[in-house]
Every structure is written in structure tokens, then in C-alpha cells.
């Protein structure tokens, strides 16, 4: 029998302690993004269904909650990812010619959880850079992503890198139906050699050999040299490996504390990414805490094909992995109608202090804040005294 206070599966309230940490981190990450020159946008939670599904790749449709607009009769969706909305804003509302850096932070909703312990209502923070096709934008996004994890206090971060162009180069000249391509990328991600062998049975020998080699191409930076030997001498393959090596060299210098890894068969989001893709992992979480990459086709559905690269993360997940932060120090004050007392409390709050007034009859209750000082009367004045 259901109760009114029970919530749906993988949906949860955020209670004061965690809500405080989420909000503090949200403010810090948005300020950090602004320090990189990012401008904040706040897209709507609801949009027309066709807009939300534009350029998101396979699998997005089943993630969306759908409903009918009572005003227009059109199908609406609750966003499952903010990136298509930001692409629409860049393409139609801003319509700038140069580089545009945008950031956002807001809830999204998923019909199904991504994992056993994940929320169906993530609080998505992300950054997008539009208008620059060079690796400089990729590097900036990677640095910003790693700075975000460092600001959250995460330790033992590992950045996993790959590139969608590798498979594009390997499959050049081979025509595959969308279903066959999806099965192939799934087999590569699972490193299922038997499935790969069956799926590539009718392909040219060079393509088949490369597909069977990809699952073993994972590890450190040395994997890139091995891939150059074992994969076809194709322009897309050569460009992808060179770009990955360039990016790894810069990241190793700027973030020497981060472990860099490569899994050239992990093509998650292959239908979405057009170049370098990455995922960040941290101690205490089996899944990626952050994903991103280059997706130059994301704006095509809005009539403006424009270079784009970015990343996103779930603040709720990030907070569970981050070390606990101390409570903010506060001042405890008595409640009273005395004008000088009320003026003293107001003055402290205007100075940025947290002042907790003890309401009548609750003097013995435990403080909900870390009250390390109290407001007391000394002679004719109200002063703050250490507890």
C-alpha cells in the first residue's frame, strides 16, 4: 500500500546538510567557470520534444519524460540533458560569429537511472565552448573539468581519453546500418572479441584486423604509439592519435596529479561525439563522475553547424564523493524586542555573519549551526563573545 510520503524509486529529497554542500559547490563551480570567461544561461526545464531530441544521439528518447502541452496540444519533454538546449541558445538566440563560452547548472530528469545508486533527477553542471575547432578549446574544457573536480576535493582522479574519429577511420568505406553500428560499438566497449569477430565477418581484412585490435588498445600514453602501428594508416586515425598525444602532453604538465589513461575501444556516445571524448573517474565511485568531448554536429539540427566542445557532471553525485566541509561558524543571539538587540542582530547579518536567534522556550535545544560565538549585553552595548 503506497503512502503519501514515499517518493518514486531513484528520486530523493535533499536534506539540509547535503543541500548546503551542494549549494556551496554550485556557487564555487559557477564562479570558477566565470573566471574562464563562461557566461551563465538558464534554459527551461520543459521544451518541445523534437527540440530536446535534436543532436543527442541514440538512446535519448527513452530517457525523456514526455507530456502533452495543454495550451498547444504539442508533445513536450522534461530535459534529460542540457546540452541540446545550450546549442539552441548559441545557434538562435545569441547567434554570435566568434567564440562563445557558456555554463549552466540545473536539474534534469531521467525515466531510468544510469546505475544502481544514481538519481533520476541529477543536478547537471556543465560548460560548452562554441566557435573554435582547434585543440585549444579542447584543452581549455579539459582543464576546466579537472579544476572542477579539484575544487570539489576529489582525490585520485583518473582521466580516460578516446576519440570517435578512430572508428570513423577504421570503418571508412564500410557501410553499416544504424543497428549494426550500434551493436559494433557495444561489442567494442564490452571488449567482446567473439561478437566483434561475428560482426566484422564480411568486412575487408584490414578493417576486421583493426576492429579486433581496438579492445586491446588501452593503458597509458604508450598505447598511442601501439595504435599507430596496429591501426590503418588513415588520415582520421592519424589525426586522432596526434591530437590525443598533444592533449595528454599539456594535461600532464598542468595537472601532474591526474592519472591519464586511454581506452581506444570505449566509444560511449559514438553517435554524439565527433572527436576527442573523455571521462573522469575518482576514488569511491565505479562510474564516471564527469563526461565530455567534442560534438561539432550538435547545432546542425538548429540550422547552424558550429564547432562545440564541453562537459557535464552531476553535482549530487560529486558531493557524495567530496570530503565533508565544516559547518559555517555562526553567532547565537537571544530573542528579544529590545531595539538595540534587534539592530545589533541586523548589523551582524549585513556584515555577512550567520546569526541564529534562540526562540523563547528553546534555549536548551542543540544548535543546528556551529555557533562558536554569542551575542551578549555588556553594559549598554551588545557585543559578540567567544563561547
From TrEMBL:
<comment type="pathway">
    <text>Amino-acid biosynthesis; L-histidine biosynthesis; L-histidine from 5-phospho-alpha-D-ribose 1-diphosphate: step 1/9.</text>
</comment>
<keyword id="KW-0963">Cytoplasm</keyword>
<keyword id="KW-0328">Glycosyltransferase</keyword>
<keyword id="KW-0808">Transferase</keyword>
<dbReference type="InterPro" id="IPR004516">
    <property type="entry name" value="HisRS/HisZ"/>
</dbReference>
<dbReference type="InterPro" id="IPR004517">
    <property type="entry name" value="HisZ"/>
</dbReference>
<dbReference type="Pfam" id="PF13393">
    <property type="entry name" value="tRNA-synt_His"/>
</dbReference>
<keyword id="KW-0028">Amino-acid biosynthesis</keyword>
<comment type="function">
    <text>Required for the first step of histidine biosynthesis. May allow the feedback regulation of ATP phosphoribosyltransferase activity by histidine.</text>
</comment>
<dbReference type="GO" id="GO:0016757">
    <property type="term" value="F:glycosyltransferase activity"/>
</dbReference>
<comment type="similarity">
    <text>Belongs to the class-II aminoacyl-tRNA synthetase family. HisZ subfamily.</text>
</comment>
<feature type="domain" description="Class II Histidinyl-tRNA synthetase (HisRS)-like catalytic core">
    <location>
        <begin position="10"/>
        <end position="318"/>
    </location>
</feature>
<dbReference type="InterPro" id="IPR045864">
    <property type="entry name" value="aa-tRNA-synth_II/BPL/LPL"/>
</dbReference>
<dbReference type="InterPro" id="IPR041715">
    <property type="entry name" value="HisRS-like_core"/>
</dbReference>
<keyword id="KW-0368">Histidine biosynthesis</keyword>
<protein>
    <recommendedName>
        <fullName>ATP phosphoribosyltransferase regulatory subunit</fullName>
    </recommendedName>
</protein>
<comment type="subunit">
    <text>Heteromultimer composed of HisG and HisZ subunits.</text>
</comment>
